[in-house]
Amino acid sequence: MGTNKALMHWKGKRLAQYGIDLVTALNLPVFLSVKQADRDTFQKVFQGCGIIPDENGLSLEGPARGILSAHLLLPQEDWMVLSCDMPLLTPSMGRDLLRSHGVHPEAEVSLFSSQGIYEPLFGIYTSTALGHWLRQDETGAWSSSSMKYLLSRVRVRAIPAKDRQIPFFLNANRPSDLDAGVREV
User: Positive or negative, the Cα torsion across 131, 137, 139, 141?
Assistant: First the structure.
C-alpha cells in the first residue's frame, strides 16, 4: 500500500487522530506505538502525543510488539490499546470498556468480542498480562505473534458487543473501507 494507515486522511482527519480524540475524551494520556522508521514522522504530525518506537529486541511482531514496547517504557502501567485503523469506535464504548475492567479485577485483559470473536485491538492490557508476555518473549517460548494465540495465555474478560456496536469495529485499510462501513453504522 505504501502509506501508513495511521497517516491516511478520512473526513478531514488522519486515522490516528480519531483514536487520539477517543482516548483524550476518556481523560487518558495518549501514546502512539510506531515502527522505528516512522518515529520522526509521527513526532512531527502528532505533536503532544507520546511516541513509543517498537523495541527491536523483542521476538514478537505486529501489534504485540507495539504493546510490549509500551510495557517496557512504563512496566507498572495498564494500557488501553486502540488500533489506528478502527476510527468508528466511540468514547462511550471506551467508557464501557473501562467500567467493565473496573468491576472485573481478575481479568488480565479486558476487550470486546464481536459475534464470539475477540476484538484485541481495542482493549485494556494489564501490567500482569504484559509482564507474562515479556517473560515468555525473553525465553523464546512463543510459537506465534498472533493476538488470538497470545490472549489464550492470559485471563480475558470479553464484553459481548451489542448488535448496534458491531459495525464500529470496522478495520479500515483504505478510505473506501470507511465510506462503506459508515453506511452500516
Answer: positive
C-beta neighbour count of 92 within 10 angstroms? 11
pLDDT of residue 13 exceeding 80, the answer is yes
Q: Can you give the pTM of this predicted structure?
A: 0.92
- Round to whole Å and give the CA distance between 125 and 141: 20
* 181 pLDDT higher than 70: no
Q: Please give the radius of gyration of the chain, using alpha carbons only, rounded to the nearest integer.
A: 16
CA distances from 174 to 13, 60, 139, 160, 179 (A): 13, 26, 37, 27, 9
Residue ranges per domain, the chain?
5-184
**128's grid cell:** 500482569
- Do 125 and 69 meet the contact criterion of CB atoms below 8 Å apart? no
Question: May I ask the CATH class of domain 5-184?
Answer: alpha beta
